[in-house]
Predict the 3D structure of the following.
Amino acid sequence: MSSLKPAAFRRIESHTAWRMLAPAILLLIIFIIVPFLLAFILSFTNERLIPRPIPTKWIGFRNYIRILTDPEFWQALKNTFWFTMFVVPTQSALGLGLALLINQPFKGRHIFRSIYFLPTVVPMVMVAIIWAGLLQAPEGVINGILHLLTFEQLGPYDWLHHELLAMPTIMLMSIWQGVGFQMIIYLAGLQNIPKELYEAARMDGANAWQRFWFITLPSLRNTHIIVLITTTILSFKLFTQVEVLTKGGPLGATNTLVRYIYVAGFQYQKIGFAAAASVIFFLLVLVIALCQHRLIQTDKEY
Amino acid sequence: MPKLLHWIYYSLLTIIAFLMLAPLIVMFSTSVKSDEFLILKDLGSIAAFWPGIPSSENYQQILADPNMPFLRFLLNTLIVVVSIVFLGIGVNSLAAYALSRLRFRGKKIIIAMVIALIIIPIESLVIPLLLLVNRLGWVDSYHVQIIPFIAHPFSIFLFYQFFNKIPKTLDEAARMDGASFFQIYWNIILPMSLPAIVTVAILQGLEFWNSFLWPLMVTRGVEYRPLSVALAQFFGRDLKVWGDIMAFTTLSSLPLLIVYFVFQRGFIQSAIGSSIKG
Amino acid sequence: MCKKFIIVLIWISFASTLYGAQTIQVWFHSGKGEEREVLNEQVKRFNQMQSEIKVNLVLLPEGSYNDQVNAAALAGDLPDLLDFDGPYIANYVWSRFLRPLDGLVNKAIIQDLLPSIIKQGTYPGDGRLYSIGTFDSGLALWGNKQLLEKAGVRIPTSVNNAWDLKEFEEVLAKLAATSGVKWPLDLKLNYGRGEWFTYGLSPIMQSMGGDLIDRKRWVSSGVLNSKASIEAMSLLQKWNKQGWVVNAASGDNKFYGEKSVGLSWVGHWMWQPHKKGLGDDLVLIPMPKFGAKAVTGMGSWNWGITAKSKHPELAAKFLEFLLQPEEILRMTNANGAVPARLSAIAQSSLYKQGGPLHLFIEQLKTIAVPRPFHPAYPIITSVYAEAVDHIIAGGNIEAELNKAVRKIDEDIEDNEGYPPFGK
């Protein structure tokens, strides 16, 4: 091969490259790029899932107008935002806390690390069902423990069917399932902080709190960004727990954007309408991703 | 550490460990109780954590129920996940190799495209995809759950990054010996990329073991339905028989838990790996 | 040798298609156990008594039946004959799943059908008959005579002397105060969000002058969210808030098992359990006149032959078999439904003049309102059921009904009014 002329060799190299890329590129085009473009196109039509005896028509921005004037859309958006706004900081803070605990040199830390990470390996459908058992009303473990801890003053509550409690309950469950993930990322971040920084601080007489505040937190800047972004986008896609446990109820209190898309497109078969909702959903995710990009770019070390 | 602090420390760790394990303990304990009345009574108290005298009755019932063939659902999930993982590793690493090692026009555009595609969430694609597979007549099959997800931009990106770290001198030496590009990929690069392969396999495997929204829309009967959807359906029945439900859930989470305990390091590595996705 | 073998094989397969039975595929919703048993037995007998047609019966879950039909239509997998809940007819005919039955089913049978069955099976788009049920439904109040007498209330016996709203609420209040009554009324909320809400509860709206949709202009706005509809739904919410209605979590058997409920608002299909549970204490009470008139529901599961069936005349033969008076009676004696043929009604011990369920026939003849015949029915029923669900949970009635109206009218607009409707 090396005996070939450079130009001929280049041609072979280029051909080989495209042949190696072909399967991936073709699949990406058919199953990501085409659907992506299709979503935009469909969002301006009245397309249906099942073929029907009338032709599909262009209807301009009607789907978008309907979505933006639909109280259920705004409720779903609000719920998704609330979920994200609460879960992201709480989960991150708890993840960092666990990472700090685990990061101490002591016997058995690997066992604890494995246990804390365990729930992230249990698929979400199963997590939701296990929790449904715990959350039973009136006779569920959580009501039982609450009853015990408050000397029979509080409860029982029907957690998942209460308009104000349902969303916080789903948040709590999601945090339990996901916190091990944040812990691992923070643990990796902590282990990358140079030991010398702490030595120097100790020399200067900084106490544990000051070391945490002035060394640990700032050194984890990149990790914070990573955790923040992954958790935000994950939270934004909230669907499984809600579909299994509450179907968006009670009174839409746990409905989310992805469920809104699912119900419109699959249950009501309004493909055009659901495509418009998908486009809006995508644009929101894009905004989050762009914010991330900005955050990372202002950080030169990254 | 002083002794008292040590004590507090371990207690704290143990309490948290208990909180993390508690739901799983309840799941297991409930699944081995055969008396449904007792289960309902126990679920309301601390007794929920105690398995009592374990019975395999619920498990036998689950495995014998012709309407809910657990093994069939498990097989369906395994077929889908294993196919995605194997085909995915092949297709994605091959593409990544070309991007990392070969020179050709348009390479930069392709790399930029792959990175751009990472941020498109599958949730925003399911509606047009649903229409597409419906019109193709793919609904209710294995391939409708496999083919759309083989090419995975993030996996390509991970492989690409990993391959970039492998010294180029290795390929050059091989090329001197007359090895073709594919031979280099197959004999040199892939064997050196085991950590990347494990990471990608776990990430893609977990993602599709968990997948719920898509199979919910494209599978209709027992034949192709994966565990996640079957379990949700089993749970969704009006009459909740907790012993059976928890036995079904235990059986469903078991395969993954076993794999986790065997490949723990891989799981943790892949969690870290996935975080750069951002 | 091998060649000969193949020729023999081909010949055998040829012969068997020529002389053997033709198989027709039949779909049935797996609803009530009794219905399933009777139909299974009927299929078995039909397959044994003749050698021309072999019926292959497939049972599908009721909850997702419509989805399955749509999916099968898309994949070209529809059976030859299938049953479906009455009001879906307009949607199925509009979507071209079904073929007309005139010319396929014997005229004498059609002329003997209960008028409500003909009405339910006729597609308003072209006025032709597309589906026939072997039975119709009946919806009324079932009472526990012992508890009602203890509460000291008048028990109406005919549509002409039905309770009005005021008296009905007095009955509920009196029952609530009666010892032994835990709940005055069971609305079968335990069935959950589904067809029951539309079938069972929309008559309250229609009785008070509201409806799901304007049946001439096919617009829901101003009808489902009209004052009358809002008022009707507020009754539901009020009864529920007052603790008069069995809640969803309490299960199915409070009326007939625990006997702690005075009135059960449910259809014919509960005849057997009710009779077994209450015996002579069971009374059937006509639907109350909430507004100007009393209204009950009608229509049940119907049989239709698909447009793509290759053997429509064979499917029709099996349908005719099911429509024989004695076969109809086999079914209706098991599920308590109204027999579809006048000749069968005359022979029915339950439904003949003076029979315990004769009231259902009187209601069907006088006060029954079908669910809307419109291709948008699947969406109408699904959004209405959601609204009812939310209203019972305490949601704002006007907001919930407005949401439902919006979805219905948007769907009709998205389908250009479902031509030839709305023109």
Observations:
- The mean pLDDT of chain A is 89.
- Chain A is about 70% helix and 0% strand.
